[in-house]
# Entry
Amino acid sequence: MFSDIQSIKTDGVLVSVRTTYVVEQSSPHLDNYVFAYKIQIVNESSATVQLLRRRWVITDALGDKRVVEGDGVIGQQPTLAPGESHEYISGCDFSTPIGQMEGHYTMQRLLDDSEFEVRIPRFSMVAPFLLN
# Structure
């Protein structure tokens, strides 16, 4: 079951995130906690845009940070006309049962090739056994 939605809009592009703990892939006795996140990107602007790159800052409960950068998302660089959306599911593992992610996408307006950053909302992932 996915968590509540976290959303933020930047320059007419809405990014929403939901997370879930993946029990089958986690091994708490080995300090390995796996989470999946589902992202929806909606182009609410009047221009067609393309997602070029992503940058994530991933932080565990001990404050240890990882930065992940690369082209596109899950091997794709989707183009979104006004009103279109793109969804994908990815994942992240932590050595602690709590972690958080935040970052941004670098997008390009196809009309004039201008690039801009679209924020990804900061979201937390918490193993459900900590909430009981």
